Amino acid sequence: MRVVIITGLSGAGKSQAVKYMEDFGYYCIDNLPPVLIPKFMELCHQTHGKIEKVALVIDIRGGLFFDDLYEGLDNLEELGYQYEILFLDASDDILVKRFKETRRSHPMSVDGSIGEGISKEREKLKKFKKMASHIIDTTKLIPAQLKEELKNIYLEGKESSNLMISIVSFGFKHGIPLDADLVFDVRFLPNPYYIDELRDYTGNDESVRDYVMNSPVSVAFGEKLLDLISFLIPQYIKEGKNQLVIAIGCTGGRHRSVTISHLLFNQLKENDNRVILNHRDAFLIKERKKE
């Protein structure tokens, strides 16, 4: 029987995750007191194989009961059940934003301070994050991307690291992304802006990508960039990094940066990396309607 313990930060997407796990055929229970884990597994065993996949959401909403999680996991091992821990995380500013949007108080906030509640929760969950089989940072994920991540791990059984790579195209005139780990300036590449028939399009259009990549410099840069990122990825994984943001910028963030971001995204995806793509500034100016 496959047993997945879902935990992590409040607001990081555990409720959404358990819905997707249910879609994947898992028998799911949200907010189960840890002391009841052995009893629940006994009930599953009595179904004689009818329940083969289980996902249990256990987090600090359980209050004092949450402190029994270690004991509950030990009991699982004593009963001969192997389990995995899925830990959902997100940046503090995104968690604060999500709580404000839903107008809910943080379960560990005594005086109403969301930030203080998040800080206390991080400290309480620190050990469980280290124990996690899989860590998903939902900071930049939309629901469909979270579902795809879970599908790859728990439905298709793909091997993956805990490093989520986010590629962001941007325009320097609009500012560098504040959360970028690596920033690459591609303003030296051929610029479609100066070609009348290409100016109103973006790097999402094949004609623009062909123009940018029809240059030995662009091809050589793409190869060297992939080589560098491929070298860095295992180093970051070894370090324990969970989120890597690669920002690629040109002047306006519509042509060259989008083209190179697509190129890097496709190459990393082919190598089975966990990667998402975001064009921050590509559509600040409405594209010309195509004939």
Element layout with pairings:
Blueprint: E1 2-8, H1 14-23, E2 27-30, H2 37-45, E3 53-57, H3 69-78, E4 83-89, H4 92-102, H5 114-131, E5 134-137, H6 143-155, E6 164-171, E7 182-185, H7 206-213, H8 216-239, E8 243-250, H9 256-270, E9 274-279
Parallel strand pairs: 1-3, 1-4, 2-3, 4-5, 6-8, 6-9, 7-8
Helix pairs in contact: 1-6, 4-5, 8-9
What does this protein structure show overall?
The structure is a single chain. The chain has 291 residues and is an alpha/beta fold. 41% of the residues lie in helices and 18% in strands. It has 9 helices and 9 strands. GTP binds at residues 59-62. ATP binds at residues 8-15.
Could you provide a short overview of the structure?
The chain is an alpha/beta fold. The chain is built from 9 helices and 9 strands.
Report the CATH superfamily of the largest domain: P-loop containing nucleotide triphosphate hydrolases
Q: What's the N-to-C terminus distance?
A: 56 Å
Please give the number of β-strands: 9
- Helix and strand run: EHEHEHEHHEHEEHHEHE
CATH class group of the largest domain: Alpha Beta
Structural class: alpha/beta
Main sheet: which strands, in order across?
2-3-1-4-5
* Binned strand content: 15-25%
Shape: elongated
Number of helices: 9
CATH overall fold name of the largest domain: Rossmann fold
- Rounded to an integer in angstroms, the radius of gyration calculated over CA atoms is 22 Å
The largest β sheet comes out as:
5 strands, parallel
Flag low-confidence runs. 287-291
Q: Quaternary status of these chains? A: single chain
Integer count of domains: 2
Q: Summarize model confidence as the mean pLDDT.
A: 88
Label the CATH architecture of the largest domain: 3-Layer(aba) Sandwich
What proportion of the residues is helical, as a percent range? 40-55%
GO molecular function: ATP binding; GTP binding
Domain RapZ C-terminal: 164-281
InterPro entries: P-loop_NTPase, RapZ-like, RapZ-like_N, RapZ_C
Keywords: ATP-binding, GTP-binding, Nucleotide-binding
